[in-house]
Amino acid sequence: MSEATTSIGAAAPVAKVGMYRWRICAMLLLATTINYIDRQVLGVLAPFLQTEIGWNEIEYGYIVTAFQAAYAIGLLCAGAIIDRLGTRVGYAIAISIWSLAAMSHSLAASVIGFAAARFVLGFGEAGNFPAAIKTVAEWFPRKERALATGIFNSGSNIGAIVAPMMVPVVAATWGWQAAFLVTGALSAAWLVAWLLIYRTPEDQPRLSAGELAYIRSDPPEPTVRVPWSRILRHRQAWAFVAAKFITDPIWWFFLFWLPKFLHAEYGLTLLGLGLPLIVIFVLADVGSIFGGWLAGRFIKMGWSVNRARKTAMGICGLAVVPIVFAANADNLWLAVGLIGLATAGHQGWSANVFTLTSDMFPRRAVASVVGIGGFAGAVGGMMIATFTGFLLQTTGSYVPVFLMAGSAYLIALLVVHLLAPRLEPAQLDGAGA
Predict the structure, then answer these.
(1) Could you read off the pLDDT of 363-409 as tens digits, one per residue?
(2) pLDDT digits (tens, 9 = 90+) for 174-204
(3) For residue 22, with 0-12 CB atoms within 10 Å meaning exposed, 13-18 middle and 19 or more buried, which class applies?
(4) CA-CA-CA-CA torsion sign (261, 266, 269, 272)
(5) For the chain, domain boundaries
(6) E-strand stretches of 29-179
(7) Are 63 and 124 a contacting pair, CB within 8 Å?
(8) Which helix (H) or strand (E) element contains residue 185?
(9) CA 205 → CA 138, 201, 277, distances in Å?
(10) CATH superfamily of 18-217+225-419
(11) 289 vs 391: CA distance, rounded Å
């Protein structure tokens, strides 16, 4: 523990330092919630739109792949852009693009039209996580980052809960086009609030001196931007990239195919999808916060960051394994329980995987590392989208995908451990950098 941390801890306990940083975390939570509402609208409406527009499983796979392709391209660019422009401007640009793209779905009337709208949406939404992770690195000391990440990352589950609650009702009342217009408008409203409220800690007049000192209690870091070529020389970067590439496709499958799975296997109508999806993503929400809390709890018990992070990741990975039985479950709620446990495991895993970046890289490189890893995850998502489309068109069986989901996380943890056995910080400025 540094002298700065010791003196702050002695003079001003965390509870008395101030709580403004958690308001920023709440903004990130809301942005991530809206982000997932916007992307989830198509998944919720997919069984209905498949009949309305007339696409088959392969064409739906291509529509999802269009989103993933743009998301991959956007992530490759977003991290570096946000590191260069800063979180306030970078986040604003990203959400402006995805807000307009979300509303543009209402104009689509063909497979090509939906694919084009999804492509632009994916490009804009790619900025969310690099910006949010960088904001956490700017606003929170290292020991609170996993919890803050878990909290804002839970917005992905809240969005996935709100979407099946809201979208079917809006679509049934005013038409499916209205669902895209309403959710896109939420993004625009958040943008206005962000521009009015957000400043960096040093420029935020509402932040107390004590809380600023607490936020900056970690040892100081250089501020020079780090190019990708230097980042990718380090095994720590490849550990994060591998974790995202192997496990992100499973989450994409959950988002875009669960409504279709429940509709196909259990005959659920558009309005009937709501409750099962809500239960699944409530469990995912609990898993996200629990996963971040668990690693922090282990660290407070005196465990090393390496042991705490990987133990939490292992526990979350094990929670996904029982999903291998979901495809053959003869009861709807048994399937929902198995899938909900898996989504909880994924989100707890994800909270810790995102935090690996701030464990191993300085703040000035975090958004770039997240962007590179997110690119890898989106490429994996493209692959599983196309594979699932062809699989379902030819066999109609979800079994192979659930088998992949059950094994992916433990394989990814092994790869992370082999590449970063001690989670040592990358020496970006050392002789070997």
Answers:
(1) 778 877 887 888 899 899 999 999 999 999 999 899 999 999 999 99
(2) 999 999 999 889 998 999 999 998 988 888 8
(3) middle
(4) negative
(5) 18-217+225-419
(6) none
(7) no
(8) helix 176-197
(9) 16, 8, 42
(10) MFS general substrate transporter like domains (1.20.1250.20)
(11) 34
